[in-house]
Amino acid sequence: MMIRIVAGTLLVALLALQFRLWLSGSGMREVWRLEQAIATQQHENDGLEARNRALAAEVRDLKDGHAALEGRARTDLGMIGANETFYQVVPPEMSNAPAAQVSERTPQADRR
Length: 112
Description:
By secondary structure, this protein is mainly alpha-helical. It has 5 helices and no strands. The protein has a domain at 2-79. It starts with a helix and ends with a helix.
């Protein structure tokens, strides 16, 4: 009789611990949620580290190299060198568009 009571008590204790382990808010569900959050954060951190490396390389190039600085001035500011001549090549289909737009605007300007 005494063995049945001890066995029953141990079984209830085991079930209570299993409940806390698998179903409670601080059990395995929380561990799985935290592992997922860590994986998501690690993926985001990897992307940010890659961006930081690219920005650091660009800063290093701008500080040390004149080619990067000159390239940035050409593309962003439209600058040209002292002994250079700027040529703009316009495709044939676009060369007629400004003239047509000007001729369309001219009668409207006369009406005002």
